[in-house]
Amino acid sequence: MKITSVAFLGFVLAALIVFRLFPAGKRWWVLLAASAVFYLTHSVGGFFVMLLTALLIWFAALRVQKKKDGFSLWLRENGETADRETKKEKKEFYRKKQKRIVAAATGITLGILFLCKYYGVYASGLGDLFHIKLWTAEGILLPLGISYYSFQLIGYLVDVHRGVTDAERNPLKVILFGGFFLSVMQGPFCRWDALTPQLCAENDRKLTFDEYRSAVLKIVGGYIKKLCVADQFAPIADEVFMNYTQHKGFGTVLGVVCFAVRLYADFSGYMDIIIGVGQLFGVEMPENFRQPFFSNNMAEFWQRWHITLGAWLRDYVFYPILKSNAFKKMGKALSAKAGANAARTIPTYLGLLILWTLIGLWHGPELHYVFGVGILQFVYIFLGEITRPVFTKIDRLLHLDGRKLPLRIIRSLRCTLLMMFAWIFFNASSVSAALEMLKNMFAQPKPGQVTSVFLAAGVDGQMRTLIWFAVCIALTVAVDVLHEKGISLREFLSRKPYPVRLAVYLLLAFALIIFGAYGGRFSTGDFIYTGF
Amino acid sequence: MKKKRFRLFIKVVAALVSFWAVFFLIQPFFVPKFIQYEAESTVFAHSFFALPENSVDVLFFGSSEMYCAVDSDRLYSKYGVNAWNFGSAGQTMAVTPYYLYEALKTQSPQTVAVEVGGIFYKNSDLDASEIAWNYAPMPLTKEKIASLEQVLGSKTKAHLHAFFPLLVYHDRWRVLNHQGDSDAGFDIDYVFHPEKYDGLYPRGFSAYQNIHQQNYDFAHSDTALKEIPEESRNAVDAIAEACRRQNIRLLFFRSPAVVWTRGESESVRRFMEGRGLEFIDLNDRADELSVSGKTDFCDGKHVSLFGAVKVTDFLAKILSA
Q1: Of A71-75, A180-184, A254-258, which range is least confident?
Q2: In terms of C-beta density within 10 A (0-12 exposed, 13-18 middle, 19 or more buried), how is residue B131 classed?
Q3: DSSP code of residue B204
Q4: Would the CB atoms of B22 and A462 count as touching at under 8 Å?
Q5: Is B13 inside any structural domain?
Q6: What is the pLDDT of residue B182?
Q7: Is pLDDT above 90 for A141?
C-alpha cells in the first residue's frame, strides 16, 4: 500500500472511523490492527521478521527489568546492613547481567539487520574480489523499515536498561511501538517514552474541527511536496544519475539540483503526511526537518535534517562510545602525553568518525553511501570545527555579523552546495560513477545540454517545466523562511476569513490535481528513504 | 450551536460547489485536441458529427492505415461514392465497434468497410496516447464508457477517462498552446476551433505527403500464421452483428503495408472465411493495383498520397460491384 495511493487514504479514513468508535483505553488495539494490516500489505514474510524482533526485544527488556528489580529487592533487604563496597559490587553484578542481555538482544537484532540488508552485498563483493563462491543470502527478504524498527526497538531496550522507562509487560504494545504504521516505513525514529503514552492513551481527547482541518492541511501540504515537487523533479534527476555518461555540463548540474530538491521534498513531504495523519489519531510524531538549507554550518545542517536519526545515534551510539572504557583510557593516555585539549578533542573526533561511518552504513552497505553521507560529512564537520577560530578572526577583522542576512545567505548557500556535492555520491550507483559525474559537470558547459536531458527523460515542455521548477524552489524557500521566523502557515490561514481560506484550499487542491505526478504518464516512485 | 452547525454546513457546501465549478470549468482545456497532421482525431470526430443525418453511403473505419489510404473525397468526386472516413490514429479492432455504434446513431450507410491493420493488437498494447487519440475527442455516451472499460480493463479507469478527463490529462499544462513542443500529436491549442480546419481533411481523408522508398515484397514475406487476439475476434463479431441488424454490407480489407506478412494475411482470411465475412487483402492484389515500393509508401505501415490514389481507385471498383 503506497502512501501516495488512494488505497492509503481509504485505509486511514477507515482506521480513523474505527479508532474513534473504540473507547479511549482500547484504541491502541485499532492502531495495532491498522499497523499489522499496513505492514502485511507490503510484506507477509517481513511482518513475521518484525514480529520476531519485537518479541525478542520485549523479552530482553523484561529480563533487564527483572535484573533491575532484583537489585532493588536486594537493596531493600540488605541496604541497611551491607557496606558500601558490597552494594557497589552487587550493583555492578546486576548491571553486568543487564548489559549481557542488552548486548545479546542488540546483537541478534543487528545480526538480522546485517543478514537482511548488508550481508548479500558484502558476500558478493568479497566473492568477486577473491574469486570464491560465497553464499550471498539470495532469497533472504528485506523487511519493510528494518533499519527503522530495529533501531527504535534497540532504543527502547537501552532505555529500560538506563532506567528511562520501565519494561512493558504487554508484548503487543512493544510490537505496536516497533511496527507502528506511521513510523515503520521511513521514520521518524521515535522514543518509547514519547510515543507509547500517546499510542496507548487512556483519556478520550476529542479533536476539534480546527485540529482536524489543521491535520488535513498538513497532509495536503505533504502530498503537494511529494507529488508536485519531488516526483516532478524525479525524471530529470533519475535520467542524469542513471545515464551519467551521456550528460555533461549544465545537464549534469540540472540533475544534481533536481535531486537535491527532490530528496528534500520527498522526505519532508512524507514526514508532513505522517505528522498530519498522526494528528488525526491524536499522536504527535516528532518533526524530522527544521529548514535544513538555512544552516550556518554542516553541524547545524545535521541538527535540522533527519533530526531523529541524528538524535538517536547521538544518544544511543555516540555518547556510549565516548563513555566507553576504551575511550576513557584513550583520553587519560592523551591527557598525559598531549595535554588536556587533545584528550578532549581527539576522542570526540574519533567518536564522530565512528558515528558518521555508522550513519553512512545505515543508509546502505555500499561505499558511495558510507562516503557520501558518512565520512564526507565527518570531514565537513571536522574541517568546520578546526577552521572555526580562523573564520571567527576573519569575521571580527572584517566586522562581519553572522546574524545579518547577507552572511546567513552565503552560509546557507555554502551548506547547500556542500550537501549537493555529497548527494552526488549518495545517489550515484558507485563512487566511480559519482567521480565521473563530477568530471562531466565541468566539461564544456553548453545550453543545449539541458535540452538533451529533457529529451532523454521524455519530459515535454522544457521551458514550462523549468519555470515550474523555479516556482517550486521559490515557494519552498518562502515557506521555509516563514517557518524559520516561527510563522505557522496553518495558523495564519486559520485566522483569515472564510473566502480567503476557501480560495487557498482550492488553490492547493488544483495544484495537486494539475501539477501532481500521478496517473498513467507517471510512474510515481516510492519515497526515497523507504529504501533504507 | 445549531446556528454554528448550519454555518459549517453552508461552508462545506460552498467549498464543494466551488471545487466542482472550477473543476468542470478548467477540464475542457486539458482534454487533448488532436488537430495536428497524422493525429487529427478531434477534427475527424467533429467533422463527422457535424454531418447531416443519414447523409453517408459508405463508412470506413480503422486506424491511420485506413484514413491515409482511402481518399474518400476522390471516391465521391470521381466515382460518385458518398463515402466518409471515420477513423482515428491507433484505432485497434477492439475499438472499432464503438466507433461504428456512435456512427450508426446518426448515419445509415449501405456499406461499412473496415481496415484490419489493427487486428493483431491487444487492448494491452494500446498506450496512453493511442487511448487519448481514440476516445478524448468522442462524445460522452454509454458506449464510450463500455468501450473504455473493455480497453482499459477497469470500470474505475473507464469512468475516470469518461467523466473526469482532467485527472487523466492533467499533466498537459506542459504543452498547452505550446507550438512545436507537443508530444505524439497532443494539441497546440487551449480550445478547439473547428472553423480553422474546415475542408483541411475532406471527408476524413488525411494524405501522407512524404514518400520514403520501401522494400515492398509481400509475396516473399513471412508465411507463419499468427493468432488473432480474442478481443479482436469479439470485435469483428460485434461489427458483423451491428451491420447484420441494419442490413449493411460489411467489407474487411487490408491496405498495402510493407510490414504486413502473408502469414498475417492468411490468418485473417481463414478467420473471416470461418465467419462468412468478406475480406480483401490489397497486398495480394499489389500487381493489379501497381503498388510500388518507390513511390507509394511514406513508411512501412502507411501509404503515401500516390499509394492512396491506387487504393481508392481499386476500392471504388469493389464498392460499386
Answers
A1: A71-75
A2: buried
A3: G
A4: no
A5: no
A6: 46
A7: no
Task: Look at residue B92 and tell me if it is in a domain.
Answer: yes
CB-based contact, B21 to chain A, within 8 Å: no
CATH of the domain at B282: 3.40.50.1110
Contacts made by residues A160-163, CB under 8 angstroms, sequence distance 24+: A160/A61, A160/A64, A160/A65, A160/A68, A161/A64, A161/A98, A161/A99, A161/A102, A163/A68
User: Would you call A460 and B11 a contact, using CB atoms and an 8 Å cutoff?
Assistant: no
Domain count, chain B: 1
Q: Would you say residue B255 lies in a domain?
A: yes
Q: Which residues of chain B fall short of a pLDDT of 50?
A: 179-187
* B31 in A contact zone (CB under 8 Å): no
Q: Which residue has the cell 479492432?
A: B93
Give the best residue of B170, B176, B183, B188 to mutate against chain A (max A CB count within 10 A).
B170
Q: Enumerate the residues of chain A whose CB falls inside 8 A of the CB of residue B173.
A: 461, 464, 514-515
Q: What share of chain B is helix, strand, coil (3-state, %, to 5)?
A: 50, 10, 40
DSSP state of B201: S
Residues of A numbered 436-465 whose beta carbons fall under 8 angstroms of chain B's beta carbons: which are they? 459-465
Q: Is the dihedral of CA A223, A224, A228, A234 positive or negative?
A: negative
What CA–CA distance (Å, rounded) separates B216 from B307? 12
Interface mutation target, options B36, B174, B175, B178, chain A, most CBs of A under 10 Å: B174
Query: Per the domain annotation, does B8 fall within a domain?
Result: no
Closest residue, chain A, to B13 (C-alpha): A502
C-alpha cell belonging to residue B238: 460485434
**Which residue in B19, B168, B175 is closest to A461 by CB distance?**
B175
Which of B19, B168, B173 minimises the CB distance to A509? Answer: B19
- Chain A contact for B19 (CB, 8 A cutoff): yes
B259 touches chain A (CB under 8 A): no
**How many of the other CB atoms lie within 10 Å of CB of A185?**
20
- Write down the pLDDT at residue B117: 93
Question: Would you say residue A359 has pLDDT above 50?
Answer: yes
Q: Which one, of A326, A324, A383, lies nearest residue A356 by Cα?
A: A383
Q: How far apart are the first and last CA of chain A?
A: 17
Extents of the domains making up chain A: 6-206, 207-290+435-532, 297-401
Question: What is the structure's pLDDT at B240?
Answer: 96
**Residue A475: its pLDDT value, please?**
93
Residue A340 identity: A
The angle that helices A27-42 and A171-179 make with each other, rounded to 10 degrees, is 50
Nearest residue on chain B to A504, judged by CA atoms?
Answer: B15
Domain assignment of residue B144, given as a range: 46-151+193-320
Note the pLDDT of residue A152. Answer: 94
- This prediction has a pTM of 0.85
Nearest-Cα distance to chain A for B207, in Å, is 27
**Interface residue A522 vs chain B (CB under 8 A):** yes
Sheet holding B58-61, edge to edge: B83-85, B58-61, B111-115, B249-254, B278-281
pLDDT band at A233 (very low <50, low <70, confident <90, very high): very high
Out of B8, B174, B183, closest to residue A464 by CB: B174
> Closest approach of chain A CAs to the CA of B19, in angstroms?
6
Q: Side chain identity at A325, as an amino acid letter?
A: N
pLDDT tens digits, one per residue of B27-83:
988 888 877 666 678 888 888 888 899 999 999 999 989 988 999 999 999 998 899
Q: What is the mean pLDDT of residues A503-516?
A: 95
**The three grid cell numbers given for residue B219, joined into one nine-digit string:** 509475396
Put simply, the answer to whether A506 touches B18 (Cβ < 8 Å) is yes
How many contacts does A have with B, using Cβ atoms within 8 A? 54
pLDDT at residue A511 is higher than 60: yes
Measured CA angle at B71 (ends B65, B75), to 5 deg: 140
Give CA separation, A346 vs A39, A343, A370, A382, in Å. Answer: 44, 6, 21, 11
